[in-house]
């Protein structure tokens, strides 16, 4: 099990047995994804070019906002998941950087890069599963119970983790087209975990997911949720929109219901699946994610000009 580089010099984790984990890739060339992008997201060469220029024009008019107008990959990660709805993509970009301006001191400054939360990856709290679901969705698992050491990992770190992982997922054009499914595992949830949460943490994290995140979040799956989880959920529930709530599935320990939502071949046996891939070592995932620090530092340089803020 090790980090390797492909012919494009993009890093990936070789898990062994033919399984890999990767984040970064160029545009897809497989015909089924080209057809899906056209049918579901209105992606054609002509519409892509037209939408990119329209979005650039809107962003040029946002005088106080600095973003990389010539970086097609940056613009596409907002346009593509939103089916090339240019005003919607523009609003998403504006909300993203307005939140940075509003909450930068507590939730942004120096936090949104993998090296800042390296201890989370090292602990094994996060897993990117190597296989996509049948519809092409990526799958990410976050363990918010036994593997969350609250003496080392704050709720600020957890909020940063969500942002970092979603940004990482958006590096892959296939995730932009197909979306992602997230599994939250609450096995071992305790009062020390619940005490970390607050209405402000809930509001900030959910505002970002619902207004700023361009990712197609196809579904959220809650597993191993005990009665104590209900206490935690009451903190977050007031900030959850109906649209997001409709995507949430509560399985507890009924993994047969989970495998009705996600193909068993993609899930490890611990979740009722048949995936025989070796589990990625936490420290190796930390090494891998930290390779992208420069990407996050570049993204952090963009935003509204504070000196001219209203």
Please render the helix and strand layout as text.
Blueprint: E1 2-5, E2 11-16, E3 19-22, H1 31-41, H2 45-60, E4 65-66, H3 72-79, H4 86-108, H5 118-123, E5 126-128, E6 138-143, H6 155-169, H7 173-178, E7 180-185, H8 191-194, H9 199-212, E8 217-223, H10 227-236, H11 242-245, E9 248-252, H12 255-261, H13 282-290, H14 293-300, E10 303-304
Parallel strand pairs: 6-7, 7-8, 8-9
Antiparallel strand pairs: 1-2, 2-3, 4-10, 5-6
GO molecular function, one term: phosphatidylinositol bisphosphate binding
Protein name: CRAL-TRIO domain-containing protein
Pfam family, one: CRAL_TRIO
Helix/strand-derived class?
alpha/beta
Mean residue pLDDT: 94
Gyration radius (Cα, Å) is 19 Å
Helical content (DSSP H or I, runs of 4+): 40-55%
Q: Report the biggest beta sheet as strand number plus sense, adding barrel if it closes.
A: 5 strands, mixed
Give the strand line-up of the largest sheet: 5-6-7-8-9
Which term fits the overall shape? globular
Notable characteristics:
310 residues, alpha/beta, Helicase, Ruva Protein, domain 3, Phosphatidylinositol Transfer Protein Sec14p, 5-stranded mixed beta sheet, 3-stranded antiparallel beta sheet, 14 helices, 10 strands, 45% helix, 15% strand, globular
Could you explain the architecture of this structure?
There is one protein chain. The chain has 310 residues and is α/β, with parallel strands linked by helices. The chain has two domains: 2-110 and 291-300, Helicase, Ruva Protein, domain 3, CATH 1.10.8; 125-276, CRAL-TRIO lipid binding domain (Phosphatidylinositol Transfer Protein Sec14p), CATH 3.40.525.10. It is 45% helix and 15% strand. It has helices at 31-41, 45-60, 72-79, 86-108, 118-123, 155-169, 173-178, 191-194, 199-212, 227-236, 242-245, 255-261, 282-290, 293-300; strands spanning 2-5, 11-16, 19-22, 65-66, 126-128, 138-143, 180-185, 217-223, 248-252, 303-304. The chain is globular, with a radius of gyration of 19 Å. The protein starts with a strand and ends in a 6-residue tail after the last strand. 30% of the residues are buried.
